[in-house]
Amino acid sequence: AVVTMMPGETPPPPAGTAAAVVACANCGVLQQNINEYVAALIALKQKMIDGDRLLTEYQQKCTDILYCSTEISALRCQVEQMLQKILPLEKCQEELGSLKAELEEKKVCL
Q1: pLDDT tens digits, residue range 31-77?
Q2: Which PANTHER family does the entry link to (predicted)?
Q3: How confident is residue 92, by pLDDT bands cut at 50, 70 and 90?
């Protein structure tokens, strides 16, 4: 079997030697480290996706709150306007009550 080698690459030790065993053990450790690194990257990517989703939801809620705040301000203005219209009507109602009482008294006197 002909093994083609890249420049600067050292040939693998002959099978069965102690160096080959150490190299295989190092390859196993390297592969485990790579697997853990890839798993950490995948978890980080998922956290970034989740963070983006939460940020989008938060921004939507802020927009909703601003809209509701505007609506509340408009409703407060309407309530103030209604109160300004109601107060004179209540005063008129009191005056009508007084006039009615006076008319009743006059009616009884007659």
Answers
A1: 999 999 999 999 999 999 999 999 999 999 999 999 999 999 999 99
A2: LITTLE ELONGATION COMPLEX SUBUNIT 1, PLATELET-ACTIVATING FACTOR ACETYLHYDROLASE
A3: very high
| Amino acid letter, 60 | Q
Tokens linked to 44: 């980080």
- Which string of DSSP letters, residue by residue, matches the chain? ------TTPPPPPPTTSHHHHHHHHHHHHHHHHHHHHHHHHHHHHHHHHHHHHHHHHHHHHHHHHHHHHHHHHHHHHHHHHHHHHHHHHHHHHHHHHHHHHHHHHHHHH-
Q: Residues near 12 by Cβ (< 8 Å), separated by ≥ 6?
A: 3, 20, 23
Q: Is the dihedral of CA 42, 45, 51, 52 positive or negative?
A: negative
CA distance 17 to 60: 65
The closest of 37, 12, 10 to 22, measured between CA atoms, is: 12
